[in-house]
Each structure stands twice: as C-alpha cells, then as structure tokens.
C-alpha cells in the first residue's frame, strides 16, 4: 500500500479470491515464457546497440519485419512467401484497428460487424462515431445472403470487421467458400475487409482456412495479427498485413511519423525471441495446453449439463459459446453463478442488439484443467438452482 492509502492496479483485471472467472480471455501466469524472454533481453543488451532506444522506422524495425515475414511464410494457413513490404508493426491488434478506423473511415460512416462479435470492438468503432450494423453468422461464419440483403437495401459500409478464424465469442471459422464470396461482395460494393486474425495461429487439430489475403485481388483486405495471444499481451505488439498501397497509408500516418514505429524496443526483443526459435516453441506449447484444457471443459460440460445446453467443441482459439434453452437469461444468472464462485461473460455483451440472452461465453486460457473442471461444476450447480 502506498502512502496515498490506496493501491493502483498492476494488471487489467483483478479477480476476487475464491472466484474461478471463466469470462476473461487472458493467459494463465505460468504460461508466460519468462526465462526465454530473459534470454531475448540478454541478447538485446549483448549487441551493445542504441538502436532499440532510438525512434523506430515508421513501418517497423526492419529485421523484425523480415523475421516476422519468414515466420508467417512457414504457417500453412498464411499467404505463401509473405513479404516484409506487406507488413506494418502495431502496438497490438486493437491499436492497429483503431488506426485503421482513423485512416479508412470518418464519423458517420456505416460499418458492418459480425453479430455476435468481440465486445470491445464496438467500443472502438463508437469512439470513431461510426454507425455499426450487425450481420448474422452461423457455423460457417458470415451469412452471405444476409450481407447481400443489407447491401442491396442501400447500406454502403466503409468496411466490414470480421474475426475470420476461431471467432470471439463463438469459436467458429469463416469457410473458404464464404471467404471468396465475401471478397467478391467487397469488390462489387467497394468496401474494405478488416480481418482480425488474432487466433488464427492457435489451431488444435485442424488446418485453419486459408487467409482472406489469398483471395484478395483488389487490395481490400487489412489483416491484423497480434503477439498477445501467441506470446504475451503485456508486450502490446502486433502487425498488419496488407497490400503495399495500404501499408503505405499506415506508414505515412501522422501518428506513425510523429512517434516513429510503435513499440520499437519491444519489437527488437520479439525479433530476438523469434531468432532464438522460441516463438515456434511457445505456440506449439500453447496449442497443446489449450487443446487439453478445451477437452477437459468439454467433458465437464457434457457430464454436468446433459442435454440442457449445446455447444461446439473449439478447434482452436480461446472460447466456448454455450447455448441454453430459450427462456434462460444469462445476465440474471450471472450474480447467482458468482455466489457459487464462478463467473463468465453473458452473450449480450457481444452484441448491441441483445439477441443473445440465452448464450454465454467461457474461456479456458486462464486456469489449469482441474480449476476449469471445478469452475464448470460450480456453474452447473448454480444452473440447477437457477432452473428450480
Ligand atoms: C478478436 C480480438 N481482437 C483483438 C483482441 C486484442 O488484441 P491486442 O491485445 O493485440 O490488442 C482480442 C483480445 O481479446 C480479441 O479477442
């Protein structure tokens, strides 16, 4: 406690003791690769170079972009032979999306989002005074007929924001066929596609569908990647992949020019991490642990809830999206669940239109398998009390 008589928080979320909070998509502390990060830092100081402390190149630290391009080219679902000229360093996907809104839209413009979608994105879009319109999704992602209907009704979006792979909150992925259809509508109606791909590299047993960039013949796709989910969110570093024409818009932005490349020092550190071979190792480790945890949650849900809920077993990413019977109200259920020592995020948090009363989202990243199973048992006990 400081002399001020209060203690300011150290991290974004403080979870009450005794509560298993399945609402936050944050990694467990034991998954942060502290030792490897120390080696990467030692390498940074061994070089005795002051470059990491200088204003960084506007597009990003060159060696970082080159190594990132090589790393991405190795990923089967990515574009083949990613060129560093198509990459731009960001301070995370959120910052990249915020800057993209500044550069590619203006207050009052219409933009489309999936319904449901990542709950903070709507706030970023609102900060830019954009008019948000939701597009329905099903188990194959954006329902193209719904999108077409909205376009034919006269709505003209500046862009559509989509999470194509292992979507937050539903875990579903946009099918290859629909990726192509989305691109052809973007060409026909002249809008950009903001593809938030922060989960794409965390696939368990399947090959994720090919990146939207692979179908982009008219420079409409702006893809956002992040180290938050594959390395550590505290690094606040990510990247954008797009055509050179689009990358130059980001490089020439006033914000980039005034402050230099974002998180330049951290990108030097991450570059060392990649060169030491640690990024591949870290992703392999996360995929294995998350897939084991997802399996445990799935089994606990099946054991404790019988046929009362339905869900799809995640094939990657962070989330379970549970559907309860029609009359269920996740927001009313939340305080009771918390009395039972478990928390989650109600479905309506992911949509402005309140269609998802009877849904809730669980994550499996913050706790080990036993605590996750314990959390699901508590949830089921609370649900039994709620339903009786
Ligand atoms: C879909 C999606 N995009 C972006 C983010 C945040 O990414 P970053 O930490 O890179 O800003 C999250 C984090 O939960 C997310 O789920």
Task: Describe the protein in words.
This protein is 39% helix and 15% strand. Helix 2 packs across helix 9, helix 10 (278-305) packs parallel to helix 12 and helix 11 packs across helix 12. Strand 6 (157-162), helix 6 and strand 7 form a beta-alpha-beta unit. The protein has helices at residues 34-46, 62-73, 93-104, 119-127, 144-152, 176-189, 244-251, 254-259, 264-275, 278-305, 330-339, 369-387; strands at 20-21, 87-90, 110-115, 131-138, 141-142, 157-162, 192-196, 221-226, 238-241, 319-323, 342-343, 345-346, 359-363. It contains twelve helices and 13 strands. The protein has an eight-stranded mixed sheet, sandwiched between helices. A three-stranded antiparallel sheet has the order 10-13-12. The protein is α/β, with parallel strands linked by helices and 388 residues long. It is globular. It folds into two domains: 20-31 and 280-387, Aspartate Aminotransferase, domain 1; 38-276, Type I PLP-dependent aspartate aminotransferase-like (Major domain) (Aspartate Aminotransferase, domain 2). The termini are far apart. The structure holds pyridoxal-5'-phosphate. Pyridoxal-5'-phosphate (PLP) is lined by residues 25, 92-94, 118, 163, 168, 196, 198, 226, 228, 233, 238.
């Amino acid at each position: 406690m400081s002399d001020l008589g209060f203690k300011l928080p150290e991290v974004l979320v403080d979870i009450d003791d005794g509560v298993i909070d399945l609402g936050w998509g944050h990694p467990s502390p034991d998954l942060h690769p502290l030792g490897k990060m120390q080696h990467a830092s030692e390498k940074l100081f061994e070089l005795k170079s002051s470059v990491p402390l200088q204003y960084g190149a506007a597009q990003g630290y060159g060696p970082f972009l080159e190594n990132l391009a090589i790393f991405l080219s190795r990923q089967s679902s990515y574009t083949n032979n990613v060129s560093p000229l198509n990459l731009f360093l960001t301070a995370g996907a959120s910052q990249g999306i915020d800057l993209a809104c500044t550069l590619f839209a203006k207050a009052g413009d219409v933009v489309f989002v999936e319904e449901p979608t990542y709950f903070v994105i709507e706030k970023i879009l609102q900060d830019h005074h954009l008019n948000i319109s939701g597009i329905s999704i099903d188990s194959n992602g954006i329902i193209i007929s719904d999108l077409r209907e909205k376009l034919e009704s006269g709505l003209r979006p500046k862009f559509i924001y989509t999470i194509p792979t292992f979507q937050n909150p539903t875990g579903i992925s946009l099918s290859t066929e629909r990726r192509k259809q989305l691109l052809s509508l973007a060409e026909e109606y002249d809008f950009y596609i903001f593809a938030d791909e922060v989960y794409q590299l965390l696939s368990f047993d399947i090959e994720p569908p090919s990146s939207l960039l692979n179908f982009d013949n008219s420079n409409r796709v702006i893809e956002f990647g992040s180290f938050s989910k594959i390395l550590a969110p505290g690094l606040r570093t990510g990247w954008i992949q797009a055509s050179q024409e689009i990358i130059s818009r980001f490089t020439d932005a006033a914000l980039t020019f005034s402050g230099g490349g974002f998180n330049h020092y951290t990108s030097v550190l991450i570059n060392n991490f990649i060169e030491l071979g640690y990024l591949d190792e870290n992703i392999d480790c996360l995929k294995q642990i998350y897939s084991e945890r997802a399996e445990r949650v799935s089994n606990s849900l099946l054991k404790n809830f019988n046929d009362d809920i339905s869900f799809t077993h995640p094939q990657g990413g962070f989330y379970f999206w549970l559907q309860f019977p029609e009359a269920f109200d996740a927001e009313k259920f939340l305080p009771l669940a918390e009395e039972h020592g478990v928390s989650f995020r109600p479905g309506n948090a992911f949509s402005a239109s309140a269609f998802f009363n009877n849904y809730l989202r669980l994550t499996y990243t913050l706790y080990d398998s036993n605590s996750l199973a314990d959390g699901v048992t508590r949830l089921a006990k609370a649900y039994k009390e709620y339903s009786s």
